[in-house]
Design a protein that fits this description.
The complex is a heterodimer of chains A (488) and B (509). Chain A is mainly α. Chain A has one domain. Chain A has helices at residues 4-18, 24-45, 76-95, 103-122, 126-135, 137-147, 152-181, 186-191, 196-214, 222-229, 232-257, 259-284, 290-311, 314-346, 351-355, 359-362, 364-378, 384-399, 401-426, 440-444, 450-468, 471-482, and strands at 55-63, 68-74. Chain A has a two-stranded antiparallel ribbon. In chain A, helix 9 packs antiparallel against helix 11 (232-257). Chain A is globular. Chain B has 509 residues and is mostly helical. Chain B has 22 helices and four strands. In chain B, the strands form two sheets. In chain B, strands 1-2 form a two-stranded antiparallel sheet. Chain B has a two-stranded antiparallel ribbon with strand order 3-4. In chain B, helix 9 runs parallel beside helix 13 (295-314), helix 10 (243-250) packs antiparallel against helix 11 (253-260) and helix 15 runs antiparallel to helix 18. Chain B is globular and about 65 Å long. The chains are: A mainly alpha (488), B mainly alpha (509). Chains A and B meet through helix 5, helix 6 and helix 7 of A and helix 18, helix 19 and helix 22 of B.
């Protein structure tokens, strides 16, 4: 039944394109809501025992001569990702409620991205997986290049080319794995023993390809530029789901297929991840544009995911998956505040300009949301960020004790830039000399809309729920991770 | 062997020839009538009306003839072999005859709406004759017959390229294409004569048997390389691609579409047959550590050069047709990969790829034709804001461009995956990984310029001059239907590649 998330989303995309403009946003909302409901139903109803391994949902021959099947499967890891996709997608649509320029196209591209993500998280056939994975790239380009802001064509092209650059390596890796093992079925491939020499070079090729999308350190530069250029919905999707595609695929495919290659290279991944955490946090500290701050914070948080994966133990990897969920929600929330709640009303994202506007009084709901999001992002206990990062660090302590210390320093930096952004954007001193401070009357007519409140509440609920009771996810993630064979 | 039997087996070709003659007759008669009318009563409107009617009739007859030809191909026996391979019928030849005729069909549909052609009857008749050339090429395993097919095709294409007498560029395109093409024919003929001298036969199967016993000699190598060079011209593989940009840009659009699609498909089918059947024993190996002299390394070098040159030069183009020409060079390189691999899988991947590539290009040229008739040009700037003016065409162009770039769920994505994985599998010990690496890099580069086209269409604002013109493009209904059908075919073949791939795989044996 969870497979219907894919069909419904694509059907919704086509419907948006064919039906008149007035229906576009409602169709998009209904489609994404249906996806979320399907995810929740699957989450509640699937027995936990079934989620411990990659259980086939549907398998139909697609191109028999080449061994390609339309094969979907689910386990705890993919279910978690489907859930976060649903949550981000619904809130993304809610935060794009007022898009009126080329509305149908907007929601069409948006739903294609969402549908492609569902597809990636559920596919159990390498070719099918790759098709969904590449499918996501081009809609992002149009979302950003048509509907974006600051330097949008540059950001869109950069992001697309980086994604495709990664895709090139993924293609190479897949094409090596496929004829060697003679199969495209992920479960069969995960059983196949590739010879160690092959693994030693095929693993980095494949993993690097995926890591580009996940924003691994030296190849992360697309992320801030892309996030800033993207419309709010684009940033939310990018940071919320698309960056997770890379990390998820690295886990599901690169690490599962080439466990020995992974063991050879895992410490280098850890090194890059730690550099990413600290470097991105340090850069974020110096940014003037609020979206750049959040963009770099995404890179920093994705560094935690990669670090967790690199530990190759149950805690680290499960924590990484929890972090993917958590960051998906938190990043979406941060971008929603910065890109939608603030920028739509103040037409600036410059921290210095914002600090003169006395926004905490003018937009109390936005301020509240941003405080929650910042707290979650900093890893305050009670929010999902804390649960995820502590789980990762427990795992890291077992494998790379030294990395914990450096990461700890990185976390301080994360707290520093988050607080700086928070204070500057909402709680700055009102300085009348730098311009007119908008009065209450100006703001009431553009107060936070119901759609925005709904989207924000959904995301805040998700981060709080998981933060207070992470077991609900970990119970499903950990058995699935334990079943993977790369664990030390 | 009775003549009746020959006529039965050659029925599709005969049908196309007859319809070409009928079209020619209609065209000539209508022009005479209109000329007489013009002289006697000097009524230009009437003359125009009669020409339009004649165009309609000519197209109708041509389309009908091609449709009947497809039906005739379907009624052919599964296997037949006449005169030592001069006319061969296998599932493979039948399949590709259908594909070639279908491509000609769509080209005629595009030509129907082309306003700049002054003698539509002659033009359509030449398209049909070129189609006969294609069918002969596809359906023969004998070098002389192949050469005749090549010449029939080539001569028709030269005329088609130069057909727009009002445009200097068209004349340039025709002349360039003619000079390069006739040189390449000379190469081919020379190569064929050497091979005939070495093997004493012009039948591909006999040649292969002879070559297996003869050691490789310089003379034989010369013959093989000469033949390959001739075909490299035809498929526009670098460094023999220099005619392509001008021909694609200058020729009337239906001619360019035909040169880019059907002519290429047939050339790849024949090239594949010649190297795999005829020169089979001289395969050699192009693996990185296991290079062995043969035609495979030659093709590998051609492929790598085409991919690199085609993609890099395409980056700098501002004219869509020229861009398509350089991308065609790159695609010829990808397509050669399957032949370099030399396996059954590889050949079938090559055929699949070239077929879907041809469909894509006819469609892309269809969109270019509409834009050209509207804005009077086919530079990138003429495409800006197309999404606002005609969402249907913009969507179709997006499908074509993204399929060329290899983006799922379009046919080009499956084609590339099939091609590259077949090449890797055939290479043995990942020997061909270097070439696949080049191809993947090229395909990464190519996304940029395809996106530039799409950026012009979807992102850029329309220029001020066209904004004053009516919002909707007033294009021919037939043209729109053609383009939409081709786009739907690309999407369908991407979602259900099995429908074509399994057929080709079964036919290649």
């Amino acid at each position: 039944m969870i497979a219907w998330t894919i069909y419904l989303t694509f059907a919704g995309a086509v419907a948006v394109l064919l039906l008149p403009c007035v229906f576009a946003r409602w169709i998009a909302l209904l489609t994404t809501l249906a996806g979320l409901v399907l995810g929740i139903v699957a989450f509640v109803r699937t027995p936990i025992a079934d989620l411990a391994h990659f259980t086939t949902i549907i398998s139909v021959p697609w191109v028999p001569p080449l061994g390609m099947n339309y094969h979907l499967a689910i386990d705890g890891v993919s279910l978690t990702m489907v859930l976060v996709t649903g949550i981000s997608a619904v809130s993304t649509v809610l935060f794009s409620w007022d898009v009126d320029h080329r509305q149908r196209e907007f929601f069409f591209w948006l739903l294609l991205v969402v549908g492609g993500c569902y597809g990636v998280f559920l596919s159990a056939d390498l070719f099918l997986f790759f098709a969904f994975y590449e499918l996501v790239i081009v809609p992002k380009y149009f979302l950003i290049a048509i509907f974006g802001s600051t330097n949008k064509e540059y950001g869109a092209m950069k992001l697309t080319l980086y994604s495709f650059f990664g895709g090139m390596f993924v293609f190479a890796g897949i094409i090596v794995a496929y004829p060697t093992a003679g199969s495209l079925d992920l479960n069969q491939l995960a059983q196949f023993h590739f010879n160690p020499e092959l693994q030693s070079w095929a693993f980095p090729v494949l993993f690097l390809g995926f890591a580009v999308i996940a924003g691994i350190w030296p190849l992360h530069t697309w992320a801030p530029a892309g996030h800033v250029a993207a419309p709010t919905a684009g940033s939310m999707l990018l940071a919320g789901i698309v960056m997770k595609l890379g990390a998820y695929a690295g886990l599901r495919i690169a690490m599962n297929l080439f466990p020995e290659g992974f063991q050879m290279w895992s410490k280098w991944i850890a090194v890059l991840a730690v550099i990413g955490i600290v470097y991105a946090a340090a850069v974020a500290l110096r940014q003037r544009d609020l979206k750049f701050v959040i963009g770099y914070s995404s890179v920093s948080h994705m560094g935690f995911v990669l670090l967790g994966l690199a530990t190759a133990n149950v805690f680290g990897v499960s924590g990484a998956i929890l972090q993917m969920f958590s960051h998906g929600v938190i990043a979406a929330l941060l971008f929603a505040v910065a890109g939608r709640m603030l920028y739509r009303r103040t037409h600036t994202r410059e921290l210095d300009a914002l600090s003169g506007m006395n926004l905490s009084h003018a937009l109390p709901f936005a301020a509240f949301t941003f405080v929650v999001a910042s707290a979650a992002s900093m890893g305050i206990p009670g929010f999902s960020g804390f649960a995820a990062e502590i789980t990762i660090l427990v795992g890291v302590w077992k494998t790379y004790p030294i990395a914990v210390w450096i990461t700890g320093a990185g976390m301080v930096l994360v707290a520093a830039f988050t607080l700086r952004a928070l204070v500057k954007s909402f709680f700055g001193e009102a300085r009348t000399q730098t311009g007119r401070v908008p009065t209450d009357a100006d703001w009431t007519e553009q107060s936070i809309t119901l759609a925005e409140k709904g989207g924000a509440c959904l995301l805040m609920f998700a981060t709080l729920a998981v933060g207070l009771y992470p077991k609900v996810l970990l119970d499903r993630i950990m058995p699935a991770v334990e079943a993977m064979r790369f664990l030390k | 062997m009775s003549y009746l039997e020959l006529l039965k087996l050659g029925a599709p070709e005969a049908v196309v020839v007859i319809s070409a003659l009928v079209v020619l007759a209609i065209g000539l008669m209508s022009q005479r009538v209109s000329a007489v009318a013009g002289v006697s009563s000097a009524k230009p409107p009437k003359k125009a009306a009669s020409t339009v009617a004649a165009t309609g009739w000519c197209s109708l007859v041509a389309l009908l003839g091609l449709a009947i030809a497809i039906a005739a191909v379907l009624m052919l026996p599964r296997n037949a072999n006449l005169f030592g391979g001069m006319l061969v019928i296998t599932p493979l030849t039948s399949l590709f005859k259908i594909i070639c005729v279908a491509l000609a069909f769509f080209t005629v549909c595009l030509a129907r709406s082309e306003k700049s052609l002054r003698h539509p009857g002659e033009y359509l008749a030449i398209i049909l004759l070129a189609t006969v050339g294609l069918m002969l090429l596809v359906g023969s395993e004998e070098l002389l017959m192949i050469f005749i097919g090549l010449e029939l095709l080539g001569l028709s294409l030269y005329v088609m390229a130069a057909f727009d007498k009002t445009d200097l560029r068209s004349a340039e395109a025709g002349l360039k294409y003619f000079l390069f093409g006739s040189t390449s024919s000379a190469f081919t003929l020379f190569g064929i004569s050497l091979i005939y001298g070495m093997s004493g036969s012009t039948g591909l199967v006999t040649i292969s048997e002879k070559l297996a016993t003869v050691p490789v000699q310089p003379l034989l190598a010369t013959g093989v390389v000469m033949t390959l060079i001739g075909f490299a011209f035809k498929i526009a593989a670098a460094p023999f691609h220099l005619w392509a940009p001008d021909a694609y840009q200058g020729a009337p659009i239906p001619s360019a579409a035909f040169i880019a699609s059907a002519s290429k498909v047939a050339s790849f089918v024949v090239l594949g047959k010649i190297v795999l059947v005829g020169f089979g024993p001289l395969h050699g190996s192009s693996g990185w550590h296991s290079m062995v002299a043969g035609w495979s390394p030659v093709l590998a070098v051609l492929a790598a050069l085409s991919i690199v040159i085609g993609n890099l030069v395409a980056l700098a183009q501002t004219n869509v047709r020229r861009l398509l020409a350089y991308s065609a060079v790159a695609h010829a390189g990808y397509t050669l990969l399957g032949l370099v691999a030399g396996s059954r899988d590889g050949f079938s991947a090559t055929l699949f790829y070239t077929a879907i590539y041809a469909i894509t290009l006819v469609g892309a040229f269809g969109v270019v034709a509409v834009v050209r008739s509207e804005t009077g040009g086919d530079d990138l700037k003429d495409f800006s804001g197309l999404a606002g003016r005609s969402p249907l065409l913009a969507g179709c162009m997006a499908i074509f461009m993204l399929s060329l770039a290899g983006i799922p769920p379009l046919a080009g994505f499956f084609g590339k995956f099939y091609l590259f994985s077949a090449a890797l599998r055939a290479g043995g010990n990942y020997g061909l990984l270097w070439l696949i690496g080049v191809a993947l890099f090229g395909s990464f580069v190519s996304l940029y310029y395809y996106l530039i086209v799409l950026k012009a269409i979807f992102v850029d604002e329309p220029p001020v001059t066209t904004r004053s013109s009516p919002d909707q493009l007033r294009s021919d209904l037939l043209q729109r239907i053609t383009v939409a059908t081709l786009a739907a075919a690309i999407l369908f073949l991407g979602l259900m590649p099995d429908t074509l791939a399994a057929r080709i795989l079964a036919a290649v044996s």
